[in-house]
Amino acid sequence: MRVAIALCLLAPFVAMLWVGSYAKVDPTFIGIPFFYWYQMLWVPLSAVLTVTAYKLWRRDQRARATAPAASGSAPKGGASR
User: Fold this and answer.
1) Where are the bilayer-spanning segments (predicted)?
2) Mean pLDDT (whole number) for 26-38
């Protein structure tokens, strides 16, 4: 689960930092060079990936909160008085 979250968050950074992969004019889209429309495509795509990562993280946190505690571990909250 956490690997999927990391991939969702890292994909936009890798895609934008690897300039050599999109530093070209062709193919154009409605007259816009590839360099520009590729970057603009990543704006909504990054938002979708960030929301996906957040939802996966929330699901993971809920699963960890409801999971039974390991046997022999001390209760959370410190020592009792």
Assistant:
1) 39-57
2) 91
